[in-house]
Queue: 2 jobs
Job 1
Amino acid sequence: MTRINLDCTASTPILPQVREAIVAALDEGNPSSIHAAGRQAKQRLERARQQVAALINAAPEELHFTSCGTEANNWALKGLLAGNKRKGNHLILSAIEHPSVSLAARRLGLEGAEVTTLPVDREGFVRPADLKAALTPETVLVSIMLANGEVGTVEPIQELVAVAHEHEALFHTDAIAAAGHVPVDVKALGVDALSLAANQFYGPPGAAALFVREGLRILPLLEGGGQEGGNRSGTEALPAIVAMGVAAEIATRELPERAKRLTAVRDRLRTALTAQLEGIRINGSWASRLPHNLHVCLDGVSSESLVLGLDAEGVAAGLGSACNSKSMRPSHVLKAMGLTDEEAKGALVLTIAEGTTPDDVDRAVEIIERVAKRLRSVTALTSRA
């Protein structure tokens, strides 16, 4: 049985060129060494920095490599708040942030920071007016994601940044779900810090980065040997970072065509599902959306039973954030968007990738329809018993 992967939120497939780059870099030296092997490794590291910086239109020196998106987000919140406390101790985030932002904010709140969580509307948008009302003279940092990887909504970051900067607050955006899928330009967005991760744009796990605007003060999260210009200590995972650079270069070159291809396949998936299944709802904005994302809720089934049923028939689908899906609780994103527990019960995140074909979509729709009908029949029998 050939499996169909519709859970590319958890991690995108690694491209062949990226895989080759990993293998080629496995025997490289330590970039911190001063001998020939170390100097060569340093050159490979800096080449990757240039490639990743180009993806988001940043200067290479503004980009700092981390081990994962979770580390980048934690560092942004904790490092920027600690580095700019002379202004105050107030942090603002949205109700749909990834746990690596929301839980880091909770920790900062326990340590004395004032934390404000902004609501979102039914489509998952943060309203600029709500941000403006929440800002105070003590607001140091606003952290609102560029795109939600669960429901696909792309936020109006430029407008939100303008509001924050009017009040002299810094702005960080978690662009992990967006980078490599939609255009991300730190200068056009106006952000002060931005997180991205290789495994979300066809690179490997183990490599991510935090953009920090030149001249901005951020305290290190990790102390040690002083790598990454003294900002992020720890021996760099060179094979993963080199591969991230290759994935970023491919994304920079192919992004417009990639988005066009993915949008066409995703729209085919939506059209077929809504035509063949009753009791299905699309969540998130359709006008401002990630090109590879489809989030649906199916009436009369549970998400867990649906995902496991699809898995048994060769289709991988997602429940939500890969970092939080094992909790089996209703999605905090859907609840923030106003869905009841019952409405969110049959949530399914379907994300496609390069290599997902129209035939894959057609076969997946047949399986989803069959599994959903079977589960609904079981639910109906149980209710009558």
Job 2
Amino acid sequence: MRRDPNPPAGTVHRLTFESRVLRHNPLGDNPLRDIHVYVPHGHDGKGLPLLVDLVGFTAGGPAHTNWRNFTENIPEQADRLIASGEMPPALIAFPDCFTRLGGNQYINSAGMGLWDDFLRHEAVPFVEQRFSCGGAGKRGVFGKSSGGYGAMIHALLHPDFWPAAACHSGDMGFPLMYLPEFPDVLRAIAKHDNSIQNWLENFYAKRKVKDDEVHILMMFAQCATFDPDPQSFMGVRLPVDIETCEFIPERWNKWMAWDPLTLVESRAEGLKQMKLLFIDCGDIDQYNLVYGARRMRRVLQRLGVAHIYEEFPDNHSSIDYRMDRSLPLLAKTLT
């Protein structure tokens, strides 16, 4: 998508917020957090809906307000959608939830920190008070990949707080997406005396990070999120046998408890009260997420939960253009 210089540009406010719930974060991450807030042209925010952007792994919210080559950032995308009349005016908040382990799944964790609490009890109230926006019935959450998981998990856990959610290529169907990653994890740590601590310390000492190393870091982040061990280095505990890569039932069951396909079975009634639940995924998603998304669609249909489900001809990468669908839907629903 090329930039359109014609729509009047909104304003991006670059704010900082000192979190109390992250003050003793187990990873030692800085509790002082950037929160960028997009306000549409001609508005001061008062009375408008609030949309909260949860970004994918390795990113922080402000990454979505940065200049991009060949395409739009999210504020520019919103400028175009609002100017065309496709999307009603809405504020968009971009909280920074980056961690030393490279990202976030946006839940409370003894290994990663109280990120659910940070979003609902600190970041959102801070933005709503500052701009007189959002409030009960006028908040929406959206995201892609790990951010899509965050949007979906917050819809499952807090439908009273988030009446609308959009999940783009979100993590679901854990056995298909996560278990295939563990052989690479074991091969990686084998080069460091089978020590997760040694691998991580070596990673942090590098001047250049490789893509395959980011995948290993991502799996350590999931370990510290879904089944943390506070006594282990950075809370990382593997759910598989380090020698045979067989999953350990007690450990893997802890992961599966956080799979949206598990949680939805007991939380359908909450989802039914939402104004909008949007789910999409690329039909050749390289992390097998389309199969989890299809399973979610079937479960939601069986449980009678209203939703919008879409597939599109693409993979997992560079798909922010799909927010041309979700942002107007969210804003219209909440206006």
